[in-house]
Each structure stands twice: as C-alpha cells, then as structure tokens.
Write a structure and sequence with these properties.
By secondary structure, the protein is mainly α. The chain folds into three domains: 12-104, Fumarase/aspartase (N-terminal domain) (Fumarase C, Chain B, domain 1, Orthogonal Bundle); 117-144 and 165-204 and 218-356, Fumarase C, Chain A, domain 2 (Up-down Bundle), CATH 1.20.200.10; 358-392, no CATH class. The protein is 60% helix and 5% strand. The chain contains 15 helices and six strands. It has helices at residues 12-19, 22-46, 52-70, 83-95, 108-144, 164-189, 208-214, 224-260, 287-300, 302-310, 322-346, 366-375, 380-392, 415-426, 431-443; strands spanning 149-154, 157-163, 191-192, 219-220, 267-268, 350-351. The strands form three sheets. The protein has a two-stranded antiparallel sheet with strand order 1-2. Helix 7 (208-214) links the parallel strand 3 (191-192) and strand 4. It is elongated. The mean pLDDT is 92.
C-alpha cells in the first residue's frame, strides 16, 4: 500500500532501491507519527473538517496504535511503504471510511517533518539527561581530587602543575558549552511544520496554531515554504550539536588512553573494565575509551555528511533527504551509548597520588618559582632569567608547592559556579511542558 498509489505498479527494482532502509528507520518514528495524527484530527474536528462521530472513532483507535508503537509491537507490513501508510491502513481496516479521512490537509512531507521533529525532541531529551549524568560524575570527581596534583602539558611537553580537579572540571564545563549548542538545536527543532502540506500550504481552513499547542511545540514554522526548507537544515543543526559532544568525548577519551599508558601511569581502572591480549598476559587494554574516541570521530564527521547530502538542493522536497535519517539516527544512538558508558566507567577510575614527587616533573615548578621571585619584588624578566640559568646549570631545586587562588585555578575550581551554568542552561529545555502536552494528547 502507498498513499500515492495510482493504477500502475512501480518496478520492484525501483521500489527496492528508493525505499532503502526507510521502513526500518520509520519504525523509530511510529509513536510520533500517531501523535501527529492525533493532533491533526483534533484540529480537523474543531474547524469542522471532520465530524464528531468520526473523531470519536479515530481518536481512541489512534491512542491504541500509539501504545502499540511505544511497546514496539507496531510493525510495517510487507508491501506497505512507510509508517504513514501503515497507520492509515490499520485505521481503515478497523474503522472503514473514517480511517481514510486522517490525511485531509496533510502531505507526507509535513507528516515526515512533524514525525522527525517530535522524534528529535525526544532524542535530545535523552541525550541531555545522559550528559547531565556525566557532568555530575565529572564534577564530583573534580571536587574529590581538587588537591591531587598532576602534570600539565603543552606541545606534549611537561609544562606546569595541574590537578585532577582541574582536569575533571574542565570537561564538565566543556559539557555546558555542548549543552548550550544542543539547546540551540532544540529551539530550532521545536517549531511546528504541520499544515505546510507539500510545502505550499492548503486550501483547507487549517488551524496551525492549534496543532502547535496540542503537540507542545514552542512556536510555529509560519511560512509554509520555510517549514519545508527546514528539512535537512534542521538535521544539520542537530548534527553540529552532536559533533560538539563528540569533540568533548573524543578529547577526554584520548586523555584517558594516554594517562592509562604505563609511561604516564596517572590513572587506573579495575581489570574488569579493561580487555586483554591473546598472547601478552600483562595487557590491560582501554578498549572502551578507544571505541569512544573512534565513535566521537564519527560524530565529528556528521555535519559534513549531512551537509553534503542536502547541499545544492533548491527549495521544496527532494528524495535526497531520506538518506539523512540513515546517518543521523545511528549517530543519536551512538551518542547515547558513549555518554552512558563514559559515566559508568568513571565510577571506577583510580587517580594516582603524589605524581609530582617524581624527578621528571621538577621543571613543572619553573613558572611557580619565577612568580615567587616576582612576588618578592624582582622584575619578571630578571626572575625568568635567574630561574633559566639555574635550570641550565642543574641547580634548580624549587619548593614543590602550588598556591593558585584566582577563579578557575587549582585552588579555586569554582565548582558551584559551573554547576549554576549547567542548571541555567538545562532549564532552557521545556521538557516538562512538552511531556505534559503529549501525555494529554495520547491519553485523552
């Protein structure tokens, strides 16, 4: 069954190629497709395009399909093109003529747009809460190890004293930036395209603000051409947000892999969190973080993939958009998995104390010594020269102490302030409002 089916059959080779993995991807959209139909028929009934008797039949039937889709029991049957066709087919089987009326004033184009935006909102919510779990884990570790010093590097050369508190806290605050970018993507996604039909509106007297309210959208994509032009570009904004998360996770994973190396030996994990070698009995491989590193690189390639799929397309719908789902849906799944396993693994991280007692880190304190001399009254350039000469002559033996007090330094991590940044950013997501709207729509 196809919503556009006429009196001829498309060649099977053409159908196989054009459908591709779309049916598989559509199953993820099934609950959202039903929600979109629920909002649409409610609006149709309110504006007089659907009589109350038909609405009274359709609404409970759609709610039943919604719960079936949520439980994973709704399938797309063989010979049925997509989730939209499947829902209409099931309603028609159950209700007869009433089932054929749910498409009035819609096109598959705006159905897909609504489904995707509802789906992306739900996915972003999951990602945001997983980010929050990782953020809180990093902040806890930052506080626990605020006084545990470690080497800081520039150019991968020993540079200045750092601390595990700084290291963990840096990635926590970086996640705040990632959350802000995700919030921007959410605000763009959270606009209702329903009623734009094939991209040029409808001669029916649709009430688009009503479906906006019913589906919990923050606003309406007013211009119907703009609504359709959002296909692809909306996904591109989300791709950039996921790439930002990937950048953070990838850099952190690389640090972990490096610091686990025996030549560094800054951290450790229990044996149960590592893997072994088939021939080297001593090996404890950081496979989890290597896979996070690789997966993060895949996420960072996402904007390029989406951009190349949608570039140079004129206004209006094009079948090219179908392939965007095939790169973005797995990326969302991968993001969730990496955030989840990173937060899980960090429960077991072991931080090595007294690292800076090792003689190889003596020169970490050169800047500390220069600054100490400056505080005693010596001009900076003279202090720099004096310490440099001591290093050159092998007589450099400074106090191995750090006294940093300014905001964001070793002695003043500003954990509370970073937490406040997180909370204020998290509050920009209207998750509760959206949830209430969809619950009311689905439960009646």
């Amino acid at each position: 069954m196809k919503l556009w089916q006429k009196d001829y059959q498309v060649l099977s080779e053409i159908e196989t190629f054009t459908v591709g993995r779309d049916r598989e991807m559509d199953l993820l959209l099934a609950p959202y497709d039903v929600l979109g139909s629920l909002a649409h028929i409610r609006m149709l009934q309110e504006v007089g395009l659907l009589d109350s008797a038909d609405y009274a039949l359709l609404a409970p039937a759609l709610r039943g399909l919604y719960h079936e889709a949520q439980s994973g029991r709704l399938i797309i049957e063989d010979g049925v093109e997509d989730i939209h066709s499947q829902v209409e087919l099931m309603l028609t089987r159950q209700l007869g003529e009433a089932g054929k009326k749910i498409h009035s004033g819609r096109s598959r184009n705006d159905q897909v747009l609504v489904d995707l935006r509802l789906f992306f909102r739900a996915e972003i919510k999951e990602v945001a809460f997983l980010m929050q779990d990782l953020f809180r884990r990093l902040q806890t570790l930052s506080e626990e190890h605020s006084q545990t010093l470690m080497p800081g590097y520039t150019h991968l050369q020993v540079a200045m004293p750092s601390s595990f508190g700084l290291w963990f806290g840096a990635y926590a605050e970086t996640l705040v930036d990632d959350l802000r970018q995700l919030s921007c993507a959410y605000q763009i996604i959270n606009q209702n395209p329903l009623g734009s039909a094939a991209g040029y509106g409808s001669s029916f007297p649709l009430h688009r603000r009503r479906t906006t309210e019913l589906l919990g959208f923050g606003d309406l994509s007013y211009n119907v051409v703009h609504a359709q032009m959002g296909r692809g570009k909306t996904e591109l904004f989300l791709a950039f947000a996921l790439a930002g998360i990937g950048h953070t996770l990838g850099k952190f994973a690389m640090d972990v892999v490096l610091f686990l190396n025996q030549n560094f030996g800054f951290i450790a994990f229990p044996d149960e969190l590592t893997t072994g070698s088939s021939i080297m009995p001593h090996k404890k491989n950081p496979d989890v973080f290597e896979l996070i590193r690789a997966g993060s690189n895949q996420l960072q390639s996402l904007p390029a993939q989406v951009s190349l799929l949608i570039s140079n397309l004129p206004a209006g719908y094009h079948r090219d958009f179908q392939l965007v789902k095939e790169v973005l849906f797995p990326a969302l799944e991968r993001t969730r998995a990496m955030l989840r396993i990173a937060a899980f693994a960090l429960q077991y991280i072991e931080v090595k104390p007294d690292l800076l007692a090792d003689s190889r880190y003596l020169y970490l304190f050169s800047v500390e010594e220069v600054n100490r001399l400056v505080l005693e009254g010596l001009p900076f350039r003279d202090a720099y020269k004096q310490v440099g000469e001591a290093i050159a002559h092998g007589t450099f033996n400074p106090p191995r102490q750090v006294a940093h007090t300014h905001e964001g330094s070793i002695g003043n991590l500003c954990t509370a302030e970073i937490n406040k940044k997180w909370e204020s950013t998290f509050e920009t997501f209207p998750f509760d409002t959206v949830e209430q709207s969809l619950h009311h729509l689905a439960e009646g």
